[in-house]
Specification:
Four copies of one chain form a homotetramer. The first copy, chain A, has helices at residues 13-26, 31-47, 68-78, 108-119; strands spanning 4-12, 54-64, 84-92, 97-107, 124-133. In chain A, strands 3-4-2-5 form a four-stranded antiparallel sheet. By secondary structure, chain A is of the alpha+beta class. Chain A has two domains: 13-47; 54-133, Alpha-Beta Plaits (2-Layer Sandwich). Chain A is built from four helices and five strands. Chain A starts with a strand and ends with a strand. The A-B interface holds A 1, 23, 26-30, 33-34, 37, 40-41, 44, 56, 58, 60, 62, 86-89, 91, 93, 96-97, 99, 101, 103, 116-117, 119-122, 124-126, 128, 130, 132, 134, 137 and B 1, 23, 25-30, 33-34, 37, 40-41, 44, 56, 58, 60, 62, 86-89, 91, 93, 96-97, 99, 101, 103, 116-117, 119-122, 124-126, 128, 130, 132, 134, 137. Strand 1 of chain B pairs antiparallel with strand 1 (4-12) of chain C, so a sheet runs across the interface.
Chain lengths: 137, 137, 137, 137
């Protein structure tokens, strides 16, 4: 892991006071940790606007398990050459609905395209693609 | 499951043409399915602004597995009386980083509060709370 | 303006009931109007992911009017050959802060780049770029 | 204005390197300025989750100017006792469409409610509410 550097940041007393209050509520132990999180989040958001960047994604789907098309498409997805499924989790929410979380790797553009395909399947009630940048987090 | 109703929707030719093109790209088989998804998403978003509403959430965390505090807090979370963990998934991303997906039930306000607590732990590099409404999806 | 078409949409009774309740709260006069808005919003979001698409943007800035650099850059912006400023609005919020709304036309990619430049200027406290698609709304 | 404080932040070399690169692209002159913007943005987002907080908002609407209902509602809005319109800007986009920016003050909850009402009016094609926190920016 890279070494640690220490930088100085100047900011208005009032802004610092409001920040200290907020991060205490959020449960942070130190300002550095809170600022590192802000920086990481910004870097992450920035990388994920690039369709060619490598990313890890957690795709969350809620679907009616009576819909069989979704099963087939999920299986196809596992055999995709473009995206690499790492792992998945299946939860029975109730009589009708399942929640599936699929963790996969691939390019941002490919992941988004695949996400749209999944969400459009009949029987899929909700879908989210959580993109997480895959380098220098 | 409830019966199916059929309603009429009037809209400009041009708007309909653009919509048909978009949903074909997204892979929808019918307009009804695409419109149901739009409606569900809007209902879902609306419910999730209510702190008291019951929801299912998929919390996604990336963290440095050398950070031990996160382990303890994740264990505490499993024993929470306010939120009910349903299932979780753990993925080794690389030498340093793990991805954890935790599926849980509880009130929107409690889930968000818990999410902030988790994200603020030292060693957690990224965190997302995916709220999914828990009724009438 | 294009002619009006009428399409049929089938959806579960329960989903329709929840939708009717929500749009009544929001103040819609008809389902068609509410569904048209959902469709337009989706089309708009989709277009705005394309860096080359023409768009109208309302850029909202809050800044300390003692910061002179921002004035210069705003002036440069008015003379840009890439973006075309249509109109702007200046509001004195209090002793220190001004709010400026700039309405302009240009390509999505150029507007976003310009937005980042403006937000990074010392003295700019907050900035938002509201992109609005420029065709077939 | 409050005095300036200087705090120390420790972070990994690699994270700092990526941050320096990003803020150079965005056009920042100093790390302090970039970090202050991240902090302000977080504070702002946090405040705006509180329905009771005072805020300034820039409401952006695109509408068909043949729709007369919108005009009436916009006029009512100017005379509201709950929200205080500060200023507004009207732009003719083309033959059919107008863009209106309304800058107003009020409580977050009231502003959001009003925004939904405006967006639901027949003839309004797109609407956005830009909330900006109104204290300690």
């Amino acid at each position: 892991m890279a070494g640690i550097e220490r930088i100085g940041v100047s900011l208005e007393k009032e802004l610092l006071g409001a920040f200290d209050k907020l991060i205490a509520e959020k449960g942070y132990q130190s300002r550095s940790e809170a600022i590192r999180d802000l920086i990481r989040q910004q870097l992450n958001d920035n990388r994920l606007t690039n369709d060619k960047a490598e990313a890890v994604a957690a795709v969350v789907l809620v679907y009616d398990h009576h819909a069989t098309a979704i099963m087939e498409r999920l299986t196809e997805l596992q055999h995709s050459h473009v995206l690499k499924t790492i792992s998945s989790l299946h939860v029975h929410l109730d009589h009708h609905d399942c929640l599936e979380v699929i963790v996969l790797r691939g390019k941002v553009g490919e992941i988004n395209k695949m996400g749209e395909k999944l969400i459009s399947i009949k029987g899929v009630k909700l879908g989210r693609v959580n993109l997480l940048a895959n380098e220098g987090l």
